[in-house]
Amino acid sequence: MNANLKPREIMTEQQAPASPRELIAFRIDAQEFCIDIMAVREIRGWTPATPLPQSPSYVRGVVNLRGAVLPIIDMSARLNMGVTQTNARSVVIVVSIRGQLVGLLVDAVCDILNVDEAQLQASPEVASDTVYSFVTALLTIEDRMLGLIALEHILPPAEAEAA
Q: In the sheet where 91-97 sits, what is the strand order?
């Protein structure tokens, strides 16, 4: 056995460097938010949705996505920021929430961000419970501040099953 060979060091989880997270940033009115890119299935242009009777005010309706019914959630309305005025630049981000495909209507997709967990900061305590349930962390990049959205809270469990 060669005396110069050293035993291989085993890196524990605590020693392992944190891998950066990829987030997709989007805009709702003048505010920016982001979600984990691993939940994103595709990004589509806006097409009018067929309204569903008795649905919550933030559900714009449904669209046909290659033979599947895709519910469209107006993210502005869901975050109590008013109803999105759709135009040719409006975007639908198709995400998977608890195994269900859902379209998130936003004003625009801004970019893809690579961030370390250390860059994410807790929401301030002055925020309401509603903000805490949707925005799990804040991210500051240069002169921008983005809220990290918890997708699992976009559709309450009962609505996720019905969608």
A: 40-45, 91-97, 100-106, 68-74, 59-65
What's the distance, Cα to Cα, between the start and end of the chain in Å? 64
Whether pTM exceeds 0.90: no
Q: How far apart are CA 158 and CA 163, in angstroms?
A: 9
3-state SS of the chain?
CCCCCCCCCCCCCCCCCCCCEEEEEEEECCEEEEEEHHHEEEEEECCCCECCCCCCCCEEEEEEECCEEEEEEEHHHHCCCCCCCCCCCCEEEEEEECCEEEEEEECEEEEEEEECHHHEECCCCCCCHHHHHHEEEEEEECCEEEEEECHHHCCCHHHHHHC
Contact 120, 148 (CB under 8 A): yes
Task: Report yes or no: 102 and 95 within 8 Å, Cβ to Cβ.
Answer: yes
pLDDT band at 80 (very low <50, low <70, confident <90, very high): confident
Contact 144, 92 (CB under 8 A): no
CB atoms within 10 A of CB 135: 19
